[in-house]
Amino acid sequence: MFIVLAGSPRGGITLTELTPEGVASAPLRLDGAGLLTAVASREPQRPRWVWSDTALWYPALLQAGLRVERSQDLRLAHRILKLAEATKGTALRDAPANAWDGSAVPPGDHANTLFDDGASENGADPIAEFLLQRHTLDDVARTDPAKAARLQLLLAAESCGALIAEEMRFTGMPWRRDVHAATLEEALGPRPQFGGRPAKLEGLADRIRVALDNPALNPDSQPDLLRSLKRAGLPVTGTSKWELRELRHPAIEPLLEFKKGARLLSANGWAWMDAWVQNGRFHPEYVVGGVVTGRWATRGGGALQLPAEVRGAVHADEGWSLVVADAAQLEPRIIAAMSRDEAMAAAGRKRDLYQGLVDAGVVDTRAHAKIAMLGALYGATSGESARLMPRLTRAFPRVIGLVEAAARAGERGEQVSTWLGRSSPLPGDDWAGADAVPSTDAPAADDRRARQAARDWGRFTRNFVAQGTAAEWAMCWMAGLRQRLRALADERGEPHLVLFLHDEVMVHTPAHLADAVTIAVTEAADDAGRLLFGNFPVDFALTVATVSSYDQAK
DNA sequence: AGCTTGAGCGCC
DNA sequence: AAAAGGCGCTCAAGCT
Q1: Across chain A, what does the average pLDDT equal?
Q2: With a 7 Å cutoff on the CB, does A238 touch strand B?
Q3: What is the pLDDT of residue A55?
Q4: Which nucleotides in chain C lie less than 7 Å from some protein C-beta?
């Protein structure tokens, strides 16, 4: 059963029940309090809640202590269907741009959007949109039922991801301010009272000024620093640490240390802590489907880029543990399954797929295996990685055939799609590509540019199918895990997800349930593999660790 | 004054 | 040693 919510969680809500055949009940008018009662009373029947935007509706429910198991996020679903190769020729695909093409609910504005004034504004009627999406899938199913089923799975997984993202934001990641503050003091010195540089950082700045003989130097200014380095006779083209690392000069050591500290201060310093950590919890905002491939992004907080330095501050509560699991060599396993490459799947049967490549005699060392695989996934054109490619092609023709085909399609300006049917964007207007007609004034240069652009786009589409399908697997993994965690709850608490990082999850759990969580996360990975790839014998190996703080994982 | 851009560096 | 896909975030500089 589907229940469509229209309006906004503050009020002016209409609730409509739909049967699978699309027959609607008489709409129910509700205010904000009525919504909570209605959700609580209907959720035990496990309906799929259909709403415009999870970030708009779900926080109000979570605030009231309610959770839902299943949903359809119409905005996320619309975006997938609108772009999907599979929906070519359907009404949704051909419809002119409308309110559903808009972007996510803006931050801090979760209950004040265009949907606020009622269901029909700008044609943004959730019931009509939901039915259109159903019909679109029906249209696809008429010619290719399997393709439609995959798209449906994708929409469900994406929508479940949106639920999880809001749940994680609401609950937050356990964060020890004292541990974080100690890290900052150790690296930077005491927190400055009235702004300005922390003492240790200023001390390093002084050493750099002396070494470069420039008392006025501001090492935070890239142009200023570059000028000073050149004046000191150093052969530099930029100020990146990779370039500086190679130089021998008294200024280099304090400069590298300064850059490291400055980075920590600006990205995860005291200001960051004040903005994002409250009551022992870090509350990041995830953007589901924020990356074209289907990966998540963040909006503020940078939860997906927590540097190793501060991970010690992610600390389980007293009596609780963190279970950290990451999928080992996920993307190679994904393309093995997609291409039905038995040989690579066999190499991944052991826990370490890279070692599997060595054991199979494809390459001589694990390091080479890794470099070669990255080359296959990213499209290496030079260096060691490119030199190892022929060995991979011989050993795994199906895998390499898959990624090469994706690259060639991109070079021709075509879309490619993930396993479940998310399609790559079409190249932009400035993309001339392989078919570019050379202009008369500078044909050679234009032609070169066009070829380069085509190759660049090919590397993008090559990676898109692997990265995007990996993201789909990960969402299915996490969705299954979420269900299993709920079932583990007892009187001492409920294990819950606190971090999702592309191929890694972290669960905060009562300590006595850590082993059960480890089993759950492993079983959920197996389930996800079967859900996507059926009986194809590919393993999705995990590295799982039970720890008290995040820096202890790995 | 406020916006965009580029450099740089953190993550997968 | 560097290369090759996807990002977010911050600062300073350069622009309007």
Answers
A1: 90
A2: yes
A3: 92
A4: 1-14
Residues sharing a CB contact under 8 Å with residue A213, sequence separation 6 or more, in sequence order: A232
Question: Which residues in chain A show pLDDT less than 70?
Answer: 103-123, 429-446
- How far in angstroms lies nucleotide C6's C1' from the CA of residue A137? 29
Q: Is strand B in 7 Å reach of the CB of A466?
A: no
Residues A81 and A140: their CA atoms lie apart, in Å, by 11
Q: How far is the CA of A467 from the C1' of C7 (A)?
A: 12
Give the per-residue pLDDT at A265. 92
CATH architecture for segment(s) A331-465: Orthogonal Bundle (1.10)
pLDDT recorded at residue A444? 66
Note the pLDDT of residue A19.
87
Q: In A173-229, which ranges are E strands?
A: 173-174
Distance A1 CA to B4 C1' (A): 48
- Which nucleotide's C1' sits nearest to the alpha carbon of A327? B12
- Which nucleotides of strand B come closer than 7 angstroms to any CB of the protein? 6-12
Which of A326, A348, A328, A345 lies closest to A337 in space, CA to CA? A345
**A452 CB-to-strand C distance under 7 Å:** no
CATH class, domain A283-330+472-552, is: alpha beta
Give pLDDT tens digits for A270-324.
999 999 999 999 999 899 999 999 999 988 888 999 999 999 999 999 999 999 9
Amino acid identity of residue A165, one-letter, is A
Predicted TM-score of the model (pTM): 0.94
How many Å does it take to go from CA A379 to C1' C2?
15
Judge whether A164 and A78 are in contact, CB under 8 Å: no
CA A468 to chain CA centroid, nearest Å: 10
**From CA A150, how far away is CA A531, in angstroms rounded?**
10
Domain borders along chain A are: 2-171, 177-273, 283-330+472-552, 331-465
| Topology of the domain covering A2-171 | Nucleotidyltransferase; domain 5 (3.30.420)
Query: A47: left (phi > 0), else alpha (psi -120 to 50), else beta?
Result: beta
Q: Which residue is nearest to nucleotide B12 (CA to C1')?
A: A502
pLDDT for residue A115? 42
A297 touches strand C (CB under 7 A): yes
From residues 256-285 of A, which are strand B contacts by CB within 7 A? Answer: 259-260, 263, 267
- Can you give the pLDDT at residue A211? 93
Q: The tokens of A542 are what? A: 């995990």
* A177-273, CATH topology level: Taq DNA Polymerase; Chain T, domain 4 (1.20.1060)
